[in-house]
Amino acid sequence: MNQFHQGPNIYVGEVNIKVKNLDYSVTFYQNIIGLQLLEQSERKAVLTADGQTPLLTLEEPVDVIPKQEHMSGLYHFAILLPTRTDLGDFLRHLILTGYPLGAADHYVSEALYLNDPDGNGIEVYRDRPYLEWTWKNDLVEMATEELDAEGILAESGAEWKGLPSGTIMGHIHLHVGDLEKAKEFYTKGIGFEVVSYYPQAVFLSSGRYHHHVAINTWQGSGAPTPPENSVGLNWYSLVFPNNEAREKVMKQLEQIGAPLKKEGTFYVTNDPAGNQIRLVI
């Protein structure tokens, strides 16, 4: 576990997405992405990288409809690999499968992008060491440059055996309808800091990470919340170091008028775009 994905920081733990065909999606996430199946029922499958921690859960809603355009919701969830060698192994595997992908160097990280069979966005990346990041006026420098794919492949050596056990959920990037309202929710409510800006996008984090959550209006200003039974994001979890830290955030959420309800051992809130968040410890 790296320094940004443990206490006292608040970070993304698990992502739950809706898919059209559960069996087909499970096959994709096992064979192409390299996750392991933890448990499966008729309409739900829990996937893991280390054999015990849920990382991604897939659900097939009754009367499911395809992903809707120009709506808020998931842009991508981002799987963080422990090393550059792991990224090289994953890239080599993708090339061998022939699965379509995109790639970028973001200064702070090196990333590969692909979509699952339903159009849910996935990023698989590795972070550069923190000391190599550049900060100016409390903002971290990020860009979208060409990836050094040859250099990454040169570090690959191992036979592909799926994602390494140290793989975690690095961040989530969301479409929202109102950037300012969403920014207020994540800063004043959740307590994240703004660490970078991009055209029509804001990057937010805890503990000076390059981002635990990013928000954008790339689906259009005023993009509505998608229907409940549509493919896309169901919910994601934010992990708190202890109950005290969570209580503090819950008070902040109440102060800004955000919805909050208890479900079992966790609390549930929604950002202004309707993206559902589970607050867990």
Automatic annotation (TrEMBL):
Q: Name one GO molecular function term.
A: dioxygenase activity
What UniProt keywords are attached to this protein's entry?
Dioxygenase, Oxidoreductase
VOC domain span: 11-127, 168-281
**What single Pfam family name could you report for this chain, choosing any that match?**
Glyoxalase
Name the record gives this protein: Catechol 2,3-dioxygenase
